[in-house]
Each structure stands twice: as structure tokens, then as C-alpha cells.
């Protein structure tokens, strides 16, 4: 692999950052506002960050070759991977030795070649990063899925992607179709691949940056599960941004996010390429995450919003020595300003770096320093090399600074498209190739991006549109409310064409709180316009959320049936 990387990579670490076409265009266009990045002539927003030089698109280069070229020679002496549960560690030389051996075995014994698709069904482990790198070095496409998925869900994903092989652990292997060849990751057969003697130099596979590297599964903007196709260049571009803007030494990164998730997948690749140490966790509890952060001197924690909220509120966060922690990278779902302020008050030396991205778009925005982290309602500045526009969801008109509309982007990190779903591709891309995010957003006069809500989740009350996320932030600000979610509900007593949907809140009380439904409604009503008021409240023990921290609103709707009784607050 090292020889392939040396031959294929032209990335010069000493050359620094040179302007991309986007930046040159911004410098030459005097009408572009250097404060907001908005160009009124083209009605587009440019990133305010220095553009990052990427390898020429025509240069054959796989992500593993790129990653190896990014590392010093000799390879770093600190661990590449650490198992949070067992403390087992894998050094960088051992990591790449295993990658080479596994790639050789998968090609020579399993017959995997460029363009094959490998379906992966496994929790996080030290073997998963090795497997990802081995597959990608062969030009095999990695398609990781949630091992908690049902057999029928998995069958649909397999029909969609048509893999030639599957990798699984024995506990979930029965969910796979019987006619799909599978290799068990917890078998002696798989472990023997690491011991295989490479009888000849690893096959030099000419992998193009435009080749598919991964298929990641997403509900996108239309609700049903879809297969997003991402290229080697997408992951190279995303990692280059972190490399170019790096401001400190090597990190010890704790990754509680599942490795099949888009964030977990990217951070797995990126952390190795940056020469950092990745602490691998299989979806630990909050207490387990805190203990691992202390034990391994974690400097960077990737966290979904529930973890950030728990750190800000729970007394259990304080007994751990988190003095090494420098940054918490939070993404996946909005976090309230109240929660962000509590976190910053409790951990004043830790930067809460909020970011925004998607399976389809890759990384879109993030915060990278103390000053940016002060903009707690935002999700940071547009990432390097990202071009954006804000579009009116009904008229299609491109909007200006401070105006709310659907965020559309062009970026080297965005997907090629959905596999086997022409309808979804037509809905997701406009005629000029802009990717529609499905998110209602705006960009302020300083270039900071703000997420208002998902367009499809807006509540249609009479003639108004009510963002659930806005009401959730208000609810989270109450000292008597631990967690909350808002969904649209319809009351059969009132014709839908007259009232439409009403905002209904599901509330988790703080321990000891006796706040009532009326008090919750009044608390919100005092802080929002009349049409945004919460008009029904249900108290629950917890809010169902995805691994990324997104509220599972459909589950909330399914567990509650609106009674056919008058609602006084209509």
C-alpha cells in the first residue's frame, strides 16, 4: 500500500493552501461581501474559510493511499486505535500491516476486486477501520448498515445495493439472505486473514477519485431509506479540510457514534489519516463515555446533542477528570442555546464546536475556534470549498442574507446520487446540480449558518408554518423540563382544512418537577407568536431518538392518539 500511495499521491504537505476557483472568483468579484460571503449578482454564498487545495481530479488516488501519504515517515509511534472496553491498542505500523494482509486475502481468497460492493453488518470494533481501509484500497465499495435493522429492512438494502459479499458478526448474521456469501468478523477464519503471508507485492489497483468508496443509507428528504453513493474524492476533500485548518497537535478522539453512521464512518477514516488516536466504542452509555474520556485522556469527543445535554446537566460528569478534553464536536441534530450555555458554563475550557452535515452532502459547516463557538445558535461557517444558496421553498427564488429558505449546496464532499432511485435524484438535485438539503436555513451578515428546521417537519397551522425545533428550544429553556419534542397533530373535532395541524409537545419533566400541561403551554405562549403556541402536551419518560440524536417524531406520533375532545387553546 505504501508504494501505491507514494506513486499515486501528489499532495504536497509543504505547499500550504492555495486558492480554489471558488476563492479566486470571490477575490475577483468586488460585489461579494467579504463579511457574509454573499454574492448579490449570483445570489450565492461563498465559504469565508481559505479554500483548500485538493489533488487534481484526474489523478488516480484511493482514500487509503491518500491517508498514508498524509502521515509522517516513519509512522507515528502512538496508537492508531484503542478499544475503550479492553484497552487493546493497534499501532500505526500494525494497522497498515493488517490492512495490507486483509486486502491481499480478500482479493486472493475471496476474489474481491474493484467495483464490488461489500455489505457490512457489525457493531464498532478495532477490526472495522481495518476492514474499511482494506476494502477501499482494493476499490471495493463499503456499504455499512445498522446491525439493529430488521431482516426485512436489511433485505431491502441488499436488493438496492446488490453486494457480492457481506461481513457480519455471528449475533446478527441470521438477518442476512441465505444466498449472500458472508464472512464472520468474529470467526477464526477472518482472524487468519491478518496472518496471511503476502506472496507477492500488493496489487496496485488504479482507483480513480471518482470511484465509489462507500454507500451510506439515509432517509434523505423523502422519508424512505435510500442508498447514497459517495466517492473517494468526497472523503479526501473532507479530510483535507481538517488537515489544512489543523491548529494543534495530535488528538485522542473518542467516537461514540456508530461506525456505520455517516459521521462515524467519516471520522474513522479522517482520524487515521490525520495521525490521531481513535478510541473505539460500541455505543456506550453516558457514564461509559465519560469514563473512557478520562481513562484515555481524550482531547476530542464527537457527541450527539443528548450527550452534550447530559454533560451540562448531570452531576456524574464532574467526578471524572476531563482536564485533557479540549473540544466537543457536536452534530446530527440541533442543540438549544440554553443547553449550549449550560455546557460552556460547566466546561469553560472546552470548546463546543457545533457542525452541520448530512449523509448526502458531507460536512457543510462547522466551528473551529473559540470565537466561532460563541455563536451558539448557529452551526458555524460554511466549510472550505462549499458553495451555498438559500432558496424560497415555493417559488425557487434565490434569497439573500438573513432570509429563510431551503439550503442548497455544491461541494466536493457531496454524494454522486442515490443508487437505484431516479425519482429521489430528481427531487434532490436541481437542473444546475445543486444538492437540496431539505433544511430550512438562513445565513447571517457574518456568514454563520443557522438551521431553522427540516422543511418536511414544519407544522402547518392555519396559514402559518411553525418550526418544531424553535418550540423545542423554548421548552428546553425551562428549568422544569429535562427534554422535549414537538410534532404536528390533527384533532378530529376541528376540520383540518380550517385549523390544519396543531403543535403538540412531548415533555420529560425534571426529577421532582410537577409542571402541568397548562403551565407548559403558558410557558411557551409567553415567548412565541400566538400562532406558534403549543396546544397539547403529553408527559413521557423519554424522547425516542436516533443514534445521531435526531428526534424520532414518527414514533412519538404512533404512541399517542389524539382524543376527540375540544382543545381550548385553538
UniProtKB/TrEMBL annotation:
<keyword id="KW-0067">ATP-binding</keyword>
<keyword id="KW-0547">Nucleotide-binding</keyword>
<dbReference type="InterPro" id="IPR025110">
    <property type="entry name" value="AMP-bd_C"/>
</dbReference>
<keyword id="KW-0436">Ligase</keyword>
<feature type="domain" description="AMP-binding enzyme C-terminal">
    <location>
        <begin position="470"/>
        <end position="550"/>
    </location>
</feature>
<feature type="compositionally biased region" description="Polar residues">
    <location>
        <begin position="1"/>
        <end position="14"/>
    </location>
</feature>
<comment type="similarity">
    <text>Belongs to the ATP-dependent AMP-binding enzyme family.</text>
</comment>
<protein>
    <recommendedName>
        <fullName>4-coumarate--CoA ligase</fullName>
        <ecNumber>6.2.1.12</ecNumber>
    </recommendedName>
</protein>
<dbReference type="InterPro" id="IPR020845">
    <property type="entry name" value="AMP-binding_CS"/>
</dbReference>
<feature type="region of interest" description="Disordered">
    <location>
        <begin position="1"/>
        <end position="39"/>
    </location>
</feature>
<dbReference type="GO" id="GO:0106290">
    <property type="term" value="F:trans-cinnamate-CoA ligase activity"/>
</dbReference>
<dbReference type="InterPro" id="IPR000873">
    <property type="entry name" value="AMP-dep_synth/lig_dom"/>
</dbReference>
<dbReference type="Pfam" id="PF00501">
    <property type="entry name" value="AMP-binding"/>
</dbReference>
<dbReference type="InterPro" id="IPR045851">
    <property type="entry name" value="AMP-bd_C_sf"/>
</dbReference>
<feature type="domain" description="AMP-dependent synthetase/ligase">
    <location>
        <begin position="76"/>
        <end position="418"/>
    </location>
</feature>
<dbReference type="Pfam" id="PF13193">
    <property type="entry name" value="AMP-binding_C"/>
</dbReference>
<dbReference type="GO" id="GO:0005524">
    <property type="term" value="F:ATP binding"/>
</dbReference>
<dbReference type="GO" id="GO:0009698">
    <property type="term" value="P:phenylpropanoid metabolic process"/>
</dbReference>
<dbReference type="InterPro" id="IPR042099">
    <property type="entry name" value="ANL_N_sf"/>
</dbReference>
<dbReference type="GO" id="GO:0016207">
    <property type="term" value="F:4-coumarate-CoA ligase activity"/>
</dbReference>
